[in-house]
């Protein structure tokens, strides 16, 4: 389910919720001449502010030789600038250049797969280690983090998705200029120091979180099998061979092309004065030169034409993923899928929870959500485990039976009203924190073209009829559009 219906609060709600009905009156929009979009909301209940920067570039925008680069850049942009994160950049830079020259040579030598070149590879690896040790003498670790923490900043973080990359921080309101100084410096003067060291960190992250974890491995394989043409099938972290061949030169080119003000959406929510905040952002960010806009993804995933099944045999508990291709966010049928998601999988009154978890006790938990992105046509996904002594086959059959009911039995009016009531509750919750609102503003502006989607969505969903649900279920929940992924336990022949 999209974040508008299921977003987890970043912290417990500690401020009065902002009513969706008044949101359009409270959001102040401003676009700098270089293209940076500002979304500001004044909330004076606490002397704090949340600042989110969302770049309109994610792993979906990578070329085949760049896979994993957006995620790696997320790591690298914490490393500092020409003035932060270094003791002496003038002395550090020549060593960084030498590291890059050796790193490129090492990648090229490994790619040759030439018999007998092991000594040359070993020599280059030794040279790289020596240079990295020399460069480390100039590094000031985590200086961004230390600066923010020293001045009361919390929640300093970032995340990369298929559709974009986001950096976020919560600060005392009187420290907003510190945020502007740090983040504008990061855009103007980034230095990707410790690149090959951090690349190794990401490779280990991949081993630990994907290759060694059966559920993550199944999910990754499931998505790859779901999208044979569209880049949504590629993992955001990249395949291991992709990461191994990334260079600082490629990363810098990607960075300078796309991490620019014209691709940035900034939401600042909290104890601010909108007019003074616009002037502050103009002063720090207004002179930054625009970059390139990411090209739209033109690849179209062709119809499957038949069910696809993925099995992973592992020493793990049985697990099941069922998916169906569906339209992108903001399309007419996507609103109907929002309703279907809530009917089937949102809360303890949902059909899956009542029937599969409580009554039949086939599974201890079941989730329903959209994945892996929202900008382009994606997947409606159902994920469940099994509860002993039941089998994956039983859980799958029960899920498909519930989907068939949506085609044949009209949803009751009281269930549709319950969904609208639930949405109103969720609207209040997601407005409960500055960070929750800042996240939604930046995400919806980026993925739908306007943050106002979050205002109009409930009104459109109120027009969804039982006949719409039956039509969408009959159109998309078909065998030829179905994907099934399972984990089977080793030694289990069932």
Description of the molecule:
With 494 residues, the protein is α+β, with helices and mostly antiparallel strands. 47% of the residues lie in helices and 16% in strands. Helix 4 packs antiparallel against helix 5 (118-136) and helix 15 crosses helix 19 (466-476). The longest helix has 24 residues, at 89-112.
Ends apart, CA distance between termini: 32 Å
Question: Averaged pLDDT, please?
Answer: 92
Backbone CA Rg: 24 Å
- Beta fraction: 15-25%
Keywords:
six-stranded mixed sheet; single chain; 494 residues; five-stranded mixed sheet; 19 helices; alpha+beta
Which helices and strands appear, and what pairs or packs with what?
Elements: H1 3-6, H2 23-26, E1 27-31, E2 37-42, E3 48-55, H3 69-76, H4 89-112, H5 118-136, H6 143-150, E4 154-160, E5 165-172, H7 176-188, H8 195-211, H9 214-226, H10 240-244, H11 248-258, E6 264-270, H12 274-285, E7 308-314, E8 319-326, H13 332-345, H14 351-359, E9 366-371, E10 378-385, H15 392-408, H16 413-430, H17 434-448, H18 453-461, H19 466-476, E11 482-489
Parallel strand pairs: 2-6, 7-11
Antiparallel strand pairs: 1-2, 3-5, 3-6, 4-5, 8-10, 8-11, 9-10
Helix pairs in contact: 3-11, 4-5, 7-12, 15-19
Brief rundown of the structure:
Helix content is 47%, strand content 16%. The protein is an alpha+beta fold and 494 residues long.
